[in-house]
Amino acid sequence: MAQRKIDVFDTTLRDGEQVPGASLNRDEKLHVAHQLASLGVDIIEAGFAASSPGDFAAVKMIAESVKGPVITALARAVESDIEAVAEAVKPAERPRIHMVLGTSKQHLDHKFRKSEDDILKMGVDAVKFARNLCPEIEYSTEDASRSDFDYLCRTLEAVIDAGASVVNIPDTVGYAVPEQWGELIRRIIETVPNIHKAKVSVHCHNDLGMATANSLAAIKAGAQQVECTMNGIGERAGNASLEEIVMAVKMRGEFYGAYTDIDTRQIYPTSVLVRERMHMPVQANKAIVGANAFSHSSGIHQDGVLKNRENYEIMTPEDVGIEQNEIILTARSGRHALRHRLELVGYTFSDEKREEFDHIYARFLNVADRKKEVLDTDLHDIMKGETVEVPEQYHLVDFQAVAG
Ligand code: KIV
Ligand code: ZN
Description:
The protein is of the alpha/beta class. 42% of the residues lie in helices and 12% in strands. It has helices at residues 26-39, 53-65, 79-89, 105-112, 116-131, 149-162, 178-191, 211-221, 242-251, 253-256, 267-277, 299-307, 335-344, 354-370, 376-384, and strands at residues 4-5, 7-10, 43-45, 70-76, 95-102, 136-142, 166-171, 199-204, 225-228, 258-259. An eight-stranded parallel β-barrel has the order 2-3-4-5-6-7-8-9, surrounded by seven helices. It has a two-stranded parallel sheet with strand order 1-10.
């Protein structure tokens, strides 16, 4: 079967960054964006440019320096937002404006308080306006999973006619279930007469734990782009998880008739960088990147794996960039071991940076003298120049001596 390329649209820096406590400063955003480019994502949604001057500056900086992926940012369908995105993404090799406007009756009646026709006109006008500022426009029909099918199709047809080259169908509230969602995407592709002039994308949320399953059902039904985040972070229960979709497509490529351009060996380093920088730990049993994802605990499984890994493993840790960590960083670790581990968590040092590395090594030794083992979290603190807290193990509350 001919394999279709699926574009991976990463929104860790926009939908993911909306999570309380996960926000990043400009340099941190840039660092994550460079790592997403090494991962091989096709599109980076770098932020919501009109939300703050800081986010505008971060999007612009990413557009100026991250080469390879399309760089986009989110706008509401209003001129000021669209202008902000156009300006921020202009320096990119391939800029895109991503705009969003609801289509469900819920949003029309209780958010915009406008009629279907008024909102449709607002969307079309916004696309025409944006099209004069940027060659690539993506249009998202927010809350599509709860929208009237005919109105949704009418909207898609009109915005494609107005110049949208990607139409994104979001399950904004995580209401969809895989069979129905796949069927919706299939019907849209069959019904909207000019759909071949645009790429069809999906954006699924995880409120019922089905974001990955829904995204895959959409790929099976013909979607050409999936929107997702690293470690599945995002609003409420999160977005579809990049690593789960990518590995499912890779492991079951025959079934989906599809592939992505992701370098799967960069998955784990990206996951670690995102969890550390965005203060969003990953549960131990998280698929693909959790601490237990490749560990075998029952006696029967351990015995089976030792006889032949494939008895209980469908992929190897190395496939997703997890190096078996035989190297534990302690005060006795040398520069080579430190450099190796730093590279695994996303920091590289060229020869010109020797002096900087010496400085980092000295800081590392200082921490290692106080801790039994230096963890990846500590490495990020060392790199940021922050104090590494050595957790209190015991706290003396009282002391009483009794002699007999
Ligand atoms: O969840 C959603 O609908 C969104 C849109 C902006 C695509 O995040
Ligand atoms: Zn979303």
